[in-house]
Write a structure and sequence with these properties.
- By secondary structure, this protein is mostly helical.
- Among the domains are: 93 residues, no CATH class; 96 residues.
- The protein is built from 20 helices and no strands.
- α11 runs antiparallel to α12.
């Protein structure tokens, strides 16, 4: 065959390959239709995989909650209820997998329903090597702290999956905190390192803050709150711990100094403007209650910022700032602030605080009744009938000041509750 002939044969082959596949004439045969239908049928449903996915999804929602996601918080309860039904309906065979058992343990330790775990323990489905872990988790979930501690104390959380190990370390910290605070603090560090960025770390940091306060460990307290504010500035569980932190900071001498104010502003810099203002307000209220007037004034100013007293929250801050001033030489400024606060719409509780502070200023400015110069006993002037002596007047005045101070504290508490309702 010549060269040209070979080329023609090759081109013919290529053309044949390029031809479209012939279309079948008419509908396919029933046998072929069934074969095709079988090819596109969905895979069989795997209940175990669905349950594990639901457990993980619930865990994800918990993580999002400590990052500030309110939608995730609202989705947890319905998902947990659905998951409970799925777990109760699941076959025991799915728990033959160590992975499935460990997911169940994390779910129970995170607040999930322990019913299924209890059944698995009763039916001896849990392997011997995991019995201490499972029994400890079940006891903790049902509130038997003593039994939980007995079972979990010898569990090597470092040998477990880091996620499960973090849960166990945190639970052991909670169980240990009353008997050995230092050991509990060490366990919170382990929990944080094993489960970074999770609800376990967030909870461990809150516990570390409480333990450092209880132990009086100032440096550890400052480090812990700095970590918490930096790692979880938007956590939906932060409100209570913020109040606790503010209460401690307000009563320390450090915050009343310039360096202390710098620490306070640096600490709260990572917070949103709204949360920062709320935190400063908590410091101001706690300082006023504790008699740290300079701190109360400065924190109230920080909370107010550049805003005028145009809403109930700002008005309350102005009143707190004013209430911190009467005991020094700045009573005129206190009255000016009270007038400023009094010109805006205010709650009845804040109005009571303003009125009480104004009465306190007036009382401090009122001159004391002085005793006459001492002379011969026969010349000592007696108080006019029905009029108290100087000593009696002074004592009555002290009692009145004490009553007004108590009344001011009560007004602050009432205003605080009102503001909490407004935020909701």
């Amino acid at each position: 065959m010549t060269g040209n002939g070979s080329i023609r044969v090759m081109l013919s082959c290529i053309a044949c390959l390029a031809l479209p596949t012939p279309i079948e004439a008419g509908p396919p045969s029933p046998a072929k239709a069934v074969a095709r239908a079988e090819k596109v049928e969905p895979l069989p449903e795997r209940p175990a995989a669905g349950i594990i996915s639901a457990i993980r999804r619930l865990s994800e929602l918990q993580q999002l909650t400590v990052l500030g996601d309110r939608v995730a918080l609202s989705q947890q309860v319905p998902l947990a209820q659905k998951l409970k039904s799925q777990l109760l309906a699941a076959s025991e065979n799915m728990w033959a997998s160590a992975h499935a058992r460990h997911e169940l343990l994390k779910h129970v330790l995170s607040g999930g329903d322990p019913t299924v775990l209890g059944k698995l323990l009763d039916r001896k489905v849990i392997p011997e090597a995991e019995l201490a872990l499972a029994r400890g988790a079940f006891a903790y979930a049902v509130g038997d702290r003593q039994e939980a501690a007995e079972h979990l104390q010898n569990v090597d959380f470092l040998s477990l999956n880091p996620s499960l190990g973090g849960h166990i370390a945190l639970v052991r910290a909670v169980l240990t905190k009353d008997a050995d605070k230092r050991a509990a603090l060490a366990l919170t560090d382990v929990a944080r390192l094993l489960s970074p960025g999770t609800v376990v770390e967030e909870t461990a940091l809150r516990l570390a803050i409480e333990l450092s306060i209880a132990n009086g460990e100032r440096i550890l307290f400052e480090r812990s709150i700095m970590r918490y504010f930096t790692r979880f500035p938007a956590s939906l569980y932060a409100e209570a711990i913020h109040a606790r932190i503010a209460g401690v900071l307000a009563l320390t001498e450090k915050v009343g100094t310039q360096s202390g104010l710098t620490f306070l502003t640096e600490l709260s810099a990572v917070l949103s403007p709204q949360r920062r203002r709320s935190f400063y307000a908590k410091v101001a209220e706690a300082a006023l209650r504790g008699g740290k007037l300079e701190t109360a004034e400065q924190a109230a100013r920080l909370a107010r910022g550049n805003e005028a007293a145009s809403d109930p929250a700002a008005t309350k801050l102005v009143a707190i700032e004013a209430a911190a001033l009467p005991f020094g030489t700045r009573r005129a400024e206190a009255l000016r602030l009270l007038d400023l606060a009094n010109t805006t719409g205010k709650s009845s509780e804040t109005g009571e605080l303003i009125a009480t502070t104004r009465a306190l200023v007036d009382m401090i400015d009122e001159p004391l009744q002085t005793a006459p110069p001492m002379g011969p006993a026969t010349n000592v002037a007696k108080p006019a009938p029905g009029r108290p002596s100087a000593a009696e007047a002074l004592n009555a005045r002290a009692v009145k000041v004490e009553a007004l101070t108590a009344k001011a504290n009560a007004s602050i508490s009432a205003a605080e509750k009102l503001l909490a309702e407004v935020k909701k």
